[in-house]
Amino acid sequence: MDKLCKIRDLRQAVNRFEADFERRYGISLNEGMVLCSLKEGGRLSSGQLGELLGLTPSNASKVIASAERKGLIVRVLGEVDKRRMYFSITEGGREVIDGVSCEEIPIHEVLRCALDI
Question: Do 94 and 27 meet the contact criterion of CB atoms below 8 Å apart?
């Protein structure tokens, strides 16, 4: 039972971290991970992004749509197969992700909870 309570505490710490991250940077944690993935990997399909982030296809689509509405990513037609859609980071998306500072992220609370399990 004690471990279950610690897992609850960890989940609450992660939720607080995500809320603080979104207030601070104007993007969700998942949007940030999409930007990181595209910055590192170039053009990726929604399936590839979902797999990298561990999201269901439905959740990946929601995160991608949100990042696209914010102008952080753009759709790009496949070069070989024009029916395939890929996504690329925009200059605005690059500026946002480059502005995320690890020193400003209050991850210590999440780590403290995780290490205390």
Answer: no
